[in-house]
Design brief:
Elements (H helix, E strand, L loop, with lengths): L1 E7 L2 E8 L2 E4 L6 H18 L6 E2 L4 E2 L7 E5 L3 H7 L19 E4 L4 E2 L3 E3 L7 E2 L2 E7 L9 H6 L1 E8 L2 E2 H8 L13 E9 L16 E6 L2 E7 L7 H8 L9 E4 L9 H7 L14 E6 L3 E7 L29
Helix pairs in contact: 2-6
């Protein structure tokens, strides 16, 4: 099954993609309702859907297929980390801590875009894409899940583009915090959610999803990898996310950027810092294709100017005052 959200004129639709049509869920159900009900509920709705009420896919504008409860983004492709950590000589250093656990960060669930969106980045000279696949959780909430139970919480998968302003990201991570504003402006998800049962035949013996992922800039292939080159599988990522915490229906967990050109910054690192291929610019079209999951497109729009400039940090004397002396006369 494929699950989608779309607009047709002023009308919002939520339902299934069947062949080349979209058809709304029965009984006014929403994607959020279906995710909470899990795969069994999705199958029940699919059996009850009125296929004669379908609308051609070409006549609708696809939205992000869900409103995420949260978005965690991992970094579990060693080749990507090698490129991102390369020095001016193109030599990489993967920290030993990377091998111990699947590191992730939280990104903004309120800046989510679907396919064919125009992305307006902040003022940046190093705009980048990140080719990823994400798992979408469904069913009951869970805490401290083992990998088997965690895998069973995965409702489906979709393509994810973690748009990145590398110059902003680099500056803020020197403070040993982030990424923040370098990632805060946009994440693309889509084109739809493919339910996990549809991909069961592509899970290998070690639990990895064996799908080919590709990314193109203006029609030119810039990166390609197999998703099964992850260092941890998705069930293990969900398990780690739930450790001393809670995962719920609608959570999105990104695989992190694939290797072999999964982002431009990886290629810049391996080239010793040379910006080849060049950073994304206004008008560039980024196309991501993943076997069985579809195609996710995004166009770079004009940069968003800062409407309000902030001052630099205030200098404070040492020793510093610890009591309030009142307003100055």
């Amino acid at each position: 099954m494929k699950i989608a959200r779309w607009t047709h004129g002023e009308t919002l639709g939520e339902g299934f993609v069947v062949d080349d049509e979209v058809v709304v869920f029965p009984d006014g159900q929403t994607v959020a309702d279906v995710l909470r009900g899990g795969l069994r509920r999705a199958h029940d709705l699919y059996a009850a859907v009125d296929l004669s009420a379908g609308r051609p896919l070409r006549d609708v504008a696809l939205l992000p297929p869900l409103v995420p409860a949260s978005v965690r983004d991992f970094a579990v492709f060693e080749e990507h980390v090698e490129g991102m950590s390369a020095d001016a000589d193109g030599l990489s250093h993967v920290p030993e801590q990377w091998y111990r656990a699947p590191t992730f960060y939280f990104t903004n669930p309120h800046a989510i875009y679907g396919t064919e969106a125009v992305i307006r980045p902040p003022a940046t000279v190093r705009l980048d894409y990140e080719l990823e696949v994400a798992a979408v959780l469904g069913g009951d909430p869970g805490e401290d899940l083992d990998p088997v139970a965690a895998q069973e919480r995965i409702f489906g998968y979709l393509i994810m583009n973690d748009w990145s302003a590398r110059d902003l990201q680099s500056e803020e991570m020197n403070v040993r915090l982030g990424p923040a504003k370098g990632k805060d402006f946009a994440t693309s998800l889509g084109p739809w959610i493919v339910t996990a049962d549809e991909l069961a035949d592509r899970i290998d013996a070690d639990g990895f999803l064996a799908l080919r992922a590709e990314v193109f800039v203006n029609g030119r292939l810039t990166g390609a990898d197999l998703l099964s080159n992850m260092a941890w599988n998705f069930g293990e990522l969900v398990s780690y996310a739930s450790r001393a915490s809670r995962v719920v229906a609608g959570d999105v967990l990104g695989s992190g950027t694939v290797g072999n050109g999964g982002c431009l910054a990886e290629l810049w690192g391996l080239a010793g810092g040379a910006l080849t291929p060049p950073p994304l610019a206004e008008g560039d079209v980024v196309t991501m294709r993943v076997e069985r999951l579809g195609e996710l497109n995004g166009t770079v729009g004009p940069a968003r100017a800062h409407p309000h400039l902030l001052p630099t940090a205030r200098a404070r004397p040492k020793p510093r005052a610890r009591t309030f002396a009142g307003p100055s006369a």
